[in-house]
Amino acid sequence: MKFDILTLFPEMFSSVLNSSILNKAQEKDLIDINTINIRDYTTDKHNQADDYPYGGGAGMVMKAEPIFRAVDDLKLASRDIAVIFLTPQGDTFNQDMAKEFAEEKELILLCGHYEGVDQRVRDELVTHEVSIGDYVLTGGELPAMILVDAISRMIPGVLGSEESAIQDSFYGDILDYPQYTRPQEYKGLKVPSVLLSGDHAKVDRWRRKKALKKTLLKRPDLLANASLSKEDKLLLAE
Ligand code: ADE
């Protein structure tokens, strides 16, 4: 998967995207993260990527021409690339979207700034508008990093074992069960004895019950949409 990130601030990306799992995924050529400075596609002597809004009003608007040129350049090789514009006005990002985007070969992520981008970019170039939640950030860079991370980990081989993605919260519709590691006791706080029992069926049952109960308490909306078995319903009633 190739991510082309169009931004006015490419320097924001290096530490996050070149660490840990995403760094390994790039070394293994499973993902390629290509940050592109929109300013490089300006043609005036001041390299101006934004301008005053027609009709007046506060703030600046990102100009259409450099963004069109940058996208045209990327689309020379392949015309059929999704262009995702990060904006609080977009559809709220979720795990299903991460899975769908992970099936693409290439994605263009356009990071907005200032008061927004010229509407002609949104009308003509953008194929998806995506928000990461109902709050307003200073720009689309952090949201773009979140998409790259969530999408990359759905690509086979990026995570150590594919199971770790499959067993996650949301993948199986409900929240995770609690996890423990050594030591068995810390500051008087003990690991639940069932996890030390070696009885795998018992452990599975305990985990499922904990996950179901936690979901009921914290995200009943998820439980309403989850496909629950007869055993699940009995565990919830216990
Ligand atoms: N740009 C600013 N805020 C944003 C948000 N919540 N999601 C996506 N892009 C944004």
UniProtKB/TrEMBL annotation:
Per the record's keyword annotation, is tRNA processing included, yes or no? yes
Where is it mainly found?
cytoplasm
Q: Which GO terms describe its biological process?
A: tRNA N1-guanine methylation
Molecular function GO labels: tRNA (guanine(37)-N1)-methyltransferase activity
> What compartments host this protein?
Cytoplasm
What is catalyzed by this enzyme? Answer: guanosine(37) in tRNA + S-adenosyl-L-methionine = N(1)-methylguanosine(37) in tRNA + S-adenosyl-L-homocysteine + H(+)
Boundaries of every tRNA methyltransferase TRMD/TRM10-type domain copy:
1-224
Question: What Enzyme Commission number(s) does the record list for this chain?
Answer: 2.1.1.228
Q: Provide one Gene Ontology cellular component.
A: cytosol
What keywords were assigned to this record? Answer: Cytoplasm, Methyltransferase, S-adenosyl-L-methionine, Transferase, tRNA processing
Record has Glycosyltransferase as a keyword? no
Enzymatic class: transferase
- In terms of superkingdom, the source organism counts as Bacteria
Chain residues that bind S-adenosyl-L-methionine: 112, 132-137
Q: Which InterPro entries match?
A: Alpha/beta_knot_MTases, tRNA_m1G_MeTrfase_C_sf, tRNA_m1G_MeTrfase_TrmD, tRNA_m1G_MTases_N, tRNA_MeTrfase_TRMD/TRM10
Q: Could you describe the subunit structure of this protein?
A: Homodimer.
Similarity comment: family membership: Belongs to the RNA methyltransferase TrmD family.
The job of this chain, per UniProt, is described as: Specifically methylates guanosine-37 in various tRNAs.
* Protein name according to UniProt: tRNA (guanine-N(1)-)-methyltransferase
